[in-house]
Amino acid sequence: MLQLRFTCLLCFAVFAAFLATSAVHAHHGWAWASDEEFEITGVIQSVRLGNPHGRVTITVDGEEWVVEVGQPWRNDRVGLTKEMLSPGREITVHGHRAAEEDMRKVKAERVVIDGKDYNLYPGRDS
Predict the structure, then answer these.
(1) How far apart are CA 51 and CA 73, in angstroms?
(2) In a 3-state reduction of DSSP, which class is residue 111?
């Protein structure tokens, strides 16, 4: 009986540690971004979709910006495809820019292409 209690307690401790670690890792994706809403419009130069997040490079007033879009499953869920993110297309990004002012990077919450919204984080206001 004592062995069973010990095993249950050990399993619970491992599970609790896993949950705590998962929460920390889930939060890392926004740690570098400011809390303020941000919007930018530019022309797509290149795209790399994949894990952990897709990256779209856009040109705005002669400067390159990196836009972090969602994970593959998140992009798929809203219908955002590589074809839509093709070079030469205009894109408007709503989200949060990097907290470091000299870093030209944006975490996208929502993007607009050809007048259509793709809300990557529907639970957030953007």
Answers:
(1) 10
(2) strand
